[in-house]
Amino acid sequence: MQKNIYNEQTGISYTLQGDYYLPDLTLPAQKEERHIGIWGQRYLRYIREHKKALYTSLLTSGKLQSYLADVEEQAQRLFDRLMKQRAELEGITETLKAGNQMEWIRRMNALRSAVTETVNAEVIFV
After folding, report:
1. Known Pfam families for this protein (predicted)?
2. Predicted confidence pLDDT, tens digits, the chain (126 residues)
3. Per the count of CB atoms within 10 A, which of 22, 27, 68, 97 is most buried?
4. In terms of domains, do 93 and 110 share one?
């Protein structure tokens, strides 16, 4: 038996693996390499588990990396904007940081948790 065969009708080559010929398929190359941070990783985990059709479609089309990078940027912009707005609204300032560091840390941690939940609800888990 031949190790490799080529089907001219489909344009796919096959390689012998044991008793079966398996197609030599590869994913399309990613066009760009962009940063995927915590938000992109969270979204990736979410679509892998809950939106399998979307994940498979993005993966096989070669657009997964770009899509996750877009989600990362959108979520990070929302996070930064909400942190700044809510910190000003709640009076968490550099003056508080200089005067009472532990109170500033406590309030910033609470604010970060609240903003993270908002970003998760509006961008990640949709």
Report:
1. TnpV
2. 788 888 888 888 999 898 898 898 776 666 667 889 999 999 999 999 999 999 999 998 889 999 999 999 999 999 999 999 999 999 999 999 999 999 999 999 999 999 999 999 999 998
3. 68
4. yes
Composition of the chain by helix, strand, coil, percent to 5: 65, 10, 25
pTM, entire model: 0.75
Tokens coding 48: 């892998």
Where b means 16+ CB within 10 Å and e means fewer, 43-55 reads bbebbeeeeeeeb
Looking up tokens 């995927």 gives 36
Q: Which of 47, 41, 38 is nearest to 112 (CA)?
A: 38
* Statement to judge: residues 11 and 55 lie in one domain: no
Residues 125, 116: contact at Cβ < 8 Å? no
Kindly state whether residues 44 and 100 are assigned to the same domain.
yes
Considering the domain architecture, whether residues 97 and 45 belong to the same structural domain is answered as: yes
DSSP of 53-101, one letter per residue? HHHHHHHHHT-HHHHHHHHHHHHHHHHHHHHHHHHHHHT--HHHHHH-H
